[in-house]
Amino acid sequence: MVSAPETLAVAPPLRRNLWRQVVSALRSDHAHVRILSGSMIMLLGSALVSGVNFAYNMVTARLLGPTNFGHVSVAMTLLMLTSAITLAFQLVCAKFVARNESMHGKWIVVRNLHKLAWLVSSVVALGLVFYSGELTQYLNLPTRSILLLLALGIWFYIPLGVRRGAMQGQCAFPRLTSNFLLEAGVKFVGSVMFIELLLRTSMGNAVLGAIGALALSVMAAYFLPPLTPELRSRDMPVGQGAFIPASVPEGMQAIVFFIGQVLINNIDIVLVKHFFSPHQAGLYAAIALVGRVLYLAAWSVVSAMFPITANVQKKDERFSIVAIPLGVVLLISGGFVAITSLIPHFIMHMVFGAAFNSPLENLLSLYAAATGLYALAVVLMAYEMSQKIANTAWLQLAFSGLIIAGICLFHDDLGQVVMVQLVLMLLMLIAVSLPFLRMRIQAAWSFWKRREA
Predict the structure, then answer these.
(1) What pTM did the predictor assign?
(2) Around Cβ 402, how many Cβ atoms within 10 Å?
């Protein structure tokens, strides 16, 4: 029994602790609301972008046929491979724009990364031009002009990552979504116009029309929509507060992460283009498109999560926040696998046309399952990156190497290519989950020990 004076002495600390818990809960709920709202905006935008991209691939496939569609797909894949650098710039820019509270600090981050991005993009584009002849032969492309046009798009594509990172770091998700929509829309409309023009006039290879539109879409996305006036101003905004510069180690961590990511998502198309006939490579590109749509939807959720978890300080809040994108990605992946299992013939025949009819359509659900497993692993890896942990980035890079080795060893048919990816993605998800579960168990154990004490 506690006497009245003792009760009065204990009550104020209890009230203060209760108030702190309420404030903490409100802050945590605010972060949850920001992730959910940002995820919904990005997810809706991703659905629109995926729809436009699907229409682009559908029309392109129908106009060009499997063989030429394979040429377009491998060119797009090369652009995606360079996105390892683009996404690294985007992620680092988003992270440090979010961490700098003053507009002064945000402006310096964007300016410095923008200059570096243009330097890197110039080196990459010139390298592609220089080795275009060898790559044309390796990928069985009809003309090196495909790679020359692609180099123009790459020149703008890497600096585009900085601009998108600035939008993401400011949580300007509507502006960021409109940027992705603009790129997809220009690519779709431009491809249809250019391909039709080249087919009707016989002025050149129709594949060049699709690649030209691809380069044009990247250039349009670089300029529109513009950044906020403060970030695009040539004069440094006046501000106070500590400046947090983008660090080289975290930049390298992001590069390692995205090199592994783009290899896992795209290297199979490049290898299939080399090992299989152009016709089979075109059929496989249509199957892989399903995985790209699924991954784009999952990545939109990760994009909304990243700048928020990077700015959350308490471990308990971080762990609870990451559960939301995991659940959303799990639902998206499950839906994709179910749809591709039920109507594979509809997707291949009705979407891409009769020329894409093949027993290979049964690989759609397996490919979607492999992509879904990888998408879940990416949520955990992106969370760790937001907390300056680089272990899983190196693990992912190792698995991307295993995929390359696995496909090089097992490619008797396209079914083997898909199974190699499915098995390795399952193993990677398990490997990535174990450290995360161990941290959760340790945190729960420490909590119970504090309660007992």
Answers:
(1) 0.74
(2) 17
